[in-house]
Amino acid sequence: MKKKLVLMTSFLMTFSLIASCGNNPTTEPPATTTSETTTVSQHTHQWGLISYTWAEDNTKCTAKRVCTEDSTHVEEETVNTTYEVVTEAKCEEDGKGRYTADFTSEAFVDQTKDIILEAIGHDLTAHDAHGETCTEAGNSAYWSCERCGKFFSDAEGKNEIENGSWIIPAHHTLTHHERKEATRLEDGNIEYWSCDVCEKYFSDEEGKNEINAESIIIPALGTDKTYFNGTYWLDSSFEYVLNFITNNFSDYDINYEYYFSSFDYDDETKELSFIITRLENMVEESSSPYKVGDKISFTYDAENEALMFGTVKLSKRQN
Fold first, then answer.
1. Burial category of 136 from C-beta neighbours within 10 Å (exposed 0-12, middle 13-18, buried 19 and up)
2. Are 139 and 170 in contact (CB under 8 A)?
3. pLDDT higher than 60, residue 314
4. Interval 192-235: pLDDT, tens
5. Where are the chain's structural domains?
6. What is the pTM of this model?
7. 3-state secondary structure string across the chain
8. 124 CB-side CA count, 13 A
């Protein structure tokens, strides 16, 4: 009986397995064999989380990922960043800057990093205090910021104040003078205010309506022909004396000197009347027809200073 021998021949087949990692496929080299029996090896990358590392000065950024199946398989990219100011820093407010990293690999996402731009503080200019005058405003000391336009009462720029609040308005140092009526012998004055500094005069307490010195005076009522006008008032600080001189048809003149503090005179009737307060310088006092306390009334021509049977002179003396 004839036996047939069937020989089985072994063949070695090698396959290349392509590992896909995103859009960056990685091809593993073919497996090699040293024996008749060869094992086929295949590997698909399982990437871990991507890390992004910024340089200390933020001018560079590195993206990196590592295969979780084989830590020797690493993909990374380092790029130079760009910088821009998003918000300018102000005197009292922080600003914001931004660095941007643009990666070429599609496996990595572009990154941004914001930084704080610290407030830059005020740029202060000092304004010294100046005293006000009667006509020019003054100011208290203050500081202004050239950048933000704010104003402050302190050199540190902490106490903000309103624009113009440092102004001290010009003003007069005024003294009030009450109205004083004129007398026959003394001037009076209207109500007015005078400035102790500039010595100007005003008709109002705010010192806005300036007047001249002449307009303040109310002239004395006079000691001339209008002296005896019955509408005038006598000044009680003076005493008056009436010298009545007559020869009384004798060989010598007789001088009657009558003193009084007030009198009445009628311009129409020309009647002068007063009450005697004392007598002096009488040549013959006993001959005087009037005594202290008597009221004298007689016709008197104020224009000519004349009385019947003689002449008269009316004058004043300080009490």
1. exposed
2. no
3. no
4. 999 999 999 999 999 999 999 999 999 876 544 333 333 333 44
5. 51-117, 124-168, 174-218, 225-318
6. 0.46
7. CCCCCCCCCCCCCCCCCEECCCCCCEECCCCCCCCCCCCCCCCCCCECCCEEEECCCCCEEEEEEEECCCCCCEEEEEEECEEEEEECCCCCCCEEEEEEECCCCCCCCCEEEEEEECCCCCCEEEECCECCCCCCCEECCEEEECCCCCEECCCCCCCEECCCCCEECCCCCEEEECCECCCCCCCEECCEEEECCCCCEECCCCCCCEECHHHHEECCCCCCHHHHCCCCCCCCCEEEEEEEEECCCCCCCEEEEEEECCEEECCCCCEEEEECCEEECCCCHHHCCCCCCCEEEEECECCCCEECCEEEEEEEEEC
8. 19
The band of 187, judged by pLDDT with boundaries at 50, 70 and 90, is confident
